[in-house]
Amino acid sequence: MRYWIIVCLIIGCFSEGFAQNKYWILFQDKGDMNTLCPEEILSTSSLLRRERQEIPFDVHDYPIYGPYLDSLKSLAITPIIRSRWLNGVSARLTRFQLDELGKKTFVRQLVPVATSLFSQTRREAQGLKQMESDYKTQLTMLGLDALHAGGFTGKGVTIAILDNGFLAVDTLSAFAHLYERNGVVGTRDFVENDADAIGPCRGSCKHGTGVLSLLAARVPGGLIGAAPDADYLLIRTENDTAELRQEEDAWLAGAEWADSMGADVIVSSLNYRKFDIGQGSYTSADFDGNTALVTIAADIAASKGITVVVSAGNGGSRGIDAPADGDSVIAVGAVDEMRNYSNFSGVGPSADGRVKPDLAAMGELTYRLTTQGEIRQGNGTSYACPLIAGLAACLLQASEGIASNSALYDALIRSADHFSQPNNELGYGIPNGIEAFSLLTGRTLSPFPSLSAHQIRIYSDLTSGEINIAIQNERDAFTLTSTLVDMLGRSLFTQQHTIPPGFHRLTLSPSINRGIYTLNLLETGGLSLISQKVMIH
């Protein structure tokens, strides 16, 4: 992308008709960059990510030139956000400071940014409808159960979450395993400018907790995250008491920090379109991949080798929101447990006609954790987004850190169920983790993981409508009776099998309508072995 030209044009499009005192101060250059070496600027893991993907260390990576910052200090200007990517700082300026900066030859541009104290209710839709559903569906839909069983749980991958706060994460038992292994490798709050993104803050500060639970929770007999063994950077960039332009600034700062800390994946379930009065909102025409500041920041992050996964937004037919329009990000739409489009999920294409969203995952009645430790259901592309990010982390682990973010994107897209015929609701569709694994690594991942003694695994084949059963029997032969029951308790299909000792695979081919059913497996004498919900597609 033509970052510098675009940034000047884009940020400059913010309306100047409002009374403003916050500005971006953009500098002409980075001064003498030869005085610094890469090891002094970025973490070892960040440099290794660049090396693996053959991404050169460039001008975007160097910090802002110190003497320029000293000149700001001499004018009593205190930077709010410092961006090495944009080569500038944001700050609140008096008329005198504006006039003085206008005389400085090292200042390339002064760009006004609106501020406001008006508050607005958060856009995120989080209805808590109650409906029977197996929480595992959100994992099996993407093939994450097979990846986990194969030992690919995100280990060795660093995921940065940009959200509105992570209240109670350090006290909930579902995340205890993270702290036991030092899996939370860093936290930052770019709203209140401190290192605590977990404690109480202005606003609800709860949304990030739910997002993290979809990625990292371990609840025995309950919710399991998509990448429970990954390492996490928890970054607060969102102030949910208001909708301000400076949240985009905070997002930019959070992404730069994630890059410097060696993040492999950035996941953000935040969207930007409408701002408070006096801020200057975006229109649908602005979502062309080259206008919104947060979109530019997301694309720059991707250019550094980071896989950036964002939600498509909950505007339905109104369209996608920034930064989902980025040409280098994975924008995620939502489906229900039957793989049907959720009508709140933002539809594409982007303003310049590109396929958006890119992928889809379960974002309707999705199971996640509350700050009280309860497993509840919620709606929103916010919940589909971390599932795809977790899948990406597991695949990165499987590639042993070699895969570039473009290779990962290609594998995910090609594995998706609408790859040959993308549409405006789901993009390329729902990815298949098992197929993406093969495309990325050249190896085969069995949908039937190895089982311990007397263990049973059930898998629905969404292409053929068949149900596959894997059984490890380490005792005498027995008769297995399989029965499919509908939601009214009516038996629709029954079949018997003789199961000798050893490992066996069974296939059921019920000729019944698509829907959710309960599969009951009984052994000789009517003793129940397992009862599990399955989906016939």
Largest sheet, spatial ordering of strands: 6-7-5-8-9-10-11
Shape: elongated
Question: What separation lies between the terminal Cα atoms?
Answer: 41 Å
CATH architecture of the largest domain: 3-Layer(aba) Sandwich
Tell me the structural class: alpha/beta
The figure for the number of domains is 3
Characterize the biggest β-sheet: 7 strands, parallel
Instruction: Find the CATH superfamily of the largest domain.
Output: Peptidase S8/S53 domain
Question: Can you tell me the residue ranges where pLDDT is under 50 for at least 5 consecutive residues?
Answer: 1-20, 115-133
User: Approximately how much beta-strand content do the residues carry?
Assistant: 15-25%
What is CATH's topology name of the largest domain?
Rossmann fold
What does this molecule look like?
The protein has 537 residues and is an alpha/beta fold. It has three domains: 21-113, no CATH class; 137-441, Rossmann fold, CATH 3.40.50; 456-536, Immunoglobulin-like (Sandwich), CATH 2.60.40. It contains 13 helices and 20 strands. A seven-stranded parallel β-sheet has the order 6-7-5-8-9-10-11, sandwiched between helices. A four-stranded antiparallel β-sheet has the order 2-3-1-4, covered by helices on one side. Helix 8 packs parallel to helix 11 (381-398), helix 9 runs parallel beside helix 10 (293-303) and helix 12 packs across helix 13 (433-441). It is elongated, with a radius of gyration of 25 Å. It starts with a helix and ends with a strand. 47% of the residues are buried.
